[in-house]
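[Discussion] Sanity-checking designs against the backbone

I'm trying to build intuition for which residues belong where. Below is a structure token string of 310 positions. I'd appreciate it if someone posts a full sequence so I can compare it with mine line by line.
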């Protein structure tokens, strides 16, 4: 067998990185496997104002600082998507090209954006449709965009884009936004200045465009009227889901696909732990993801120490 890690952490978001810090500082041999880039969702966040210790910090600055801490401690990080886990006294974690072995696993898989389920959505992804304002906003400088969604993420995206685009249409299904008050106040200020136009009770029912997004049709659910808007880009922020389908049959998930954990972040499988946004938690935030990572790591390493190899 190749190297036997005490703990393999899947996901290099804030939960996974915190788990890495706690596990390594306790003395564990740790590997983090990440399918994308450092930081997960936090890396996509324009400005973070609720992470203790920082009045305001950009997501990318926060996650790269944490990553430096992780690397300085000697945690290994490799970039590959985990496709399968084989449970056993020694556990096997499989990527496309490699198999890794460990005593315990921590799942810090986070969450991914939900789509609208409209016919053209896949075809026009990256051609005017985006799920990340911070990543793609700069392409829409001086242009007209729509943000779809009524929660905090949609409000943040609309505010971010209002500094770049000439006009932001903010479209949401309910009568009022569900975003936190302080964000909504900023939205109202931007509305007064004409940068953001609010469309409540509206649902996007069609996206038009051949090689790129050109128009959207939105249905006003109160009046029953359809309105066509010319837009250059669409930013979809209608929620997230945990991408845990590949774990079905291994760990227990709830009806929404979130991994069920107890207060020690144990799943139903001995030696497999989970933390952060992929779990059945009430609050999905940076501090909770980080705390989950710490709890999972502490308990996972306790478990790993019980696994004895001759
Ligand atoms: C736009 C936006 C703004 C936000 N603003 C704030 C804010 O201001 N304050 C706040 O507290 N929270 C904010 N949040 C929420 C916060 O970012 C998340 O709660 C937190 O980042 C979750 O961390 P996590 O480690 O659980 O998951 P994630 O950050 O989602 O990280 C999970 C990682 O796992 C990787 N992964 C998944 N599956 C696999 C696999 N099979 N193999 C390998 N790697 C895998 C993913 O690529 C990802 O990098 C915001 C979220 C968004 C989307």
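Best answer:
Here's mine. Compare freely.
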């Amino acid at each position: 067998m190749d190297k036997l890690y005490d703990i393999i952490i899947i996901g290099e978001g804030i939960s996974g990185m915190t788990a890495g810090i706690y596990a390594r500082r306790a003395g564990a041999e740790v590997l983090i496997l990440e399918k994308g880039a450092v930081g997960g969702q936090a890396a996509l966040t324009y400005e973070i104002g609720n992470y203790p210790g920082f009045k305001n910090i950009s997501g990318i600055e926060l996650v790269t600082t944490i990553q430096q801490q992780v690397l300085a401690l000697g945690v290994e990080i490799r970039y590959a998507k985990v496709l399968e886990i084989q449970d056993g006294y020694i556990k096997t974690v499989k990527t496309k090209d490699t198999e890794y072995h460990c005593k315990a696993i921590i799942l810090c898989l986070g969450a991914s954006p939900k789509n609208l389920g409209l016919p053209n959505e896949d075809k026009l992804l990256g051609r005017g449709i985006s799920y990340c304002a911070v990543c793609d906003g700069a392409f829409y400088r001086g242009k007209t965009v729509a943000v779809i969604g009524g929660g905090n993420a949609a409000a943040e995206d609309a505010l971010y884009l209002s500094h770049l685009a000439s006009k932001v249409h903010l479209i949401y299904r309910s009568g009022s936004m569900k975003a936190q008050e302080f964000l909504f106040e900023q939205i109202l200020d931007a509305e007064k200045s004409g940068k953001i136009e609010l469309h409540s009770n509206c649902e996007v029912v069609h996206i038009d465009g051949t090689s790129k997004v050109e128009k959207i049709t939105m249905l006003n659910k109160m009046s029953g009227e359809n309105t066509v808007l010319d837009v250059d880009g669409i930013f979809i922020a209608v929620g997230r889901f945990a991408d845990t389908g590949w774990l079905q049959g291994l760990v227990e998930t709830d009806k929404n696909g979130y991994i069920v954990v107890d207060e020690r972040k144990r799943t139903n499988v001995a030696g497999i732990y989970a933390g952060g946004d992929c779990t059945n938690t009430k609050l999905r935030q940076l501090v909770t993801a980080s705390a989950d990572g710490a709890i999972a790591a502490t308990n996972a390493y306790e478990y790993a120490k019980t696994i004895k190899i001759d």
